[in-house]
Amino acid sequence: MITCKDALILFIKKLDIFRHNLLQGEFHQFPELLTVKNHITPEDIERFGNHLSELTLDMEKRFCDILNVKVYDWTGADLDCRTGRTCDSQHSAAQQYF
Questions:
Q1: Annotated domain spans of the chain
Q2: What is the sign, positive or negative, of the torsion defined by CA atoms of 12, 13, 15, 16?
Q3: Long-range CB contacts for residues 91-97, cutoff 8 Å, separation at least 24
Q4: Distance between CA atoms of 98 and 24, rounded to whole angstroms?
Q5: In whole angstroms, what is the distance from residue 88 CA to residue 84 CA?
Q6: What burial class does residue 22 get, using C-beta atoms within 10 Å of its C-beta: 0-12 exposed, 13-18 middle, 19+ buried?
């Protein structure tokens, strides 16, 4: 199960990969830049890279509450309480954290 936190972490890592590739002159993640590759100056690449860095920092700042949340294993457990043992074990695990 992918959580909101996981999705944010993956997106932020993806931005870092995009920035790295962009600074290496690899434009395959940016099709519009790929079409004008011969007309892009190093200053343009640096500006785009800085924009991706700022976007990463903004995402980390804006979603710091989600990124810092502790996700416990029992939160993703099956909540089917057809057996007393499963229900009891989940209930006791939950009680440890509250």
A1: 4-97
A2: positive
A3: 97/72
A4: 49
A5: 6
A6: buried
Distance of CA 89 to the CA centre of its chain: 31
Q: Give residue 82's pLDDT.
A: 57
pTM above 0.70, yes or no: no
Q: What are phi and psi of 64, to 5 degrees?
A: -60, -35
Rounded Cα gap, residues 5 and 3, in angstroms: 5
Supply the pLDDT for residue 83. 53
pLDDT in tens, 5-31: 999 999 999 999 999 999 999 988 988
Can you tell me the distance from the alpha carbon of 91 to that of 89, in angstroms, rounded to the nearest whole number?
5
How is residue 91 written in tokens?
């209930």
The C-alpha atoms of residue 9 and residue 14 are separated, in whole angstroms, by 9
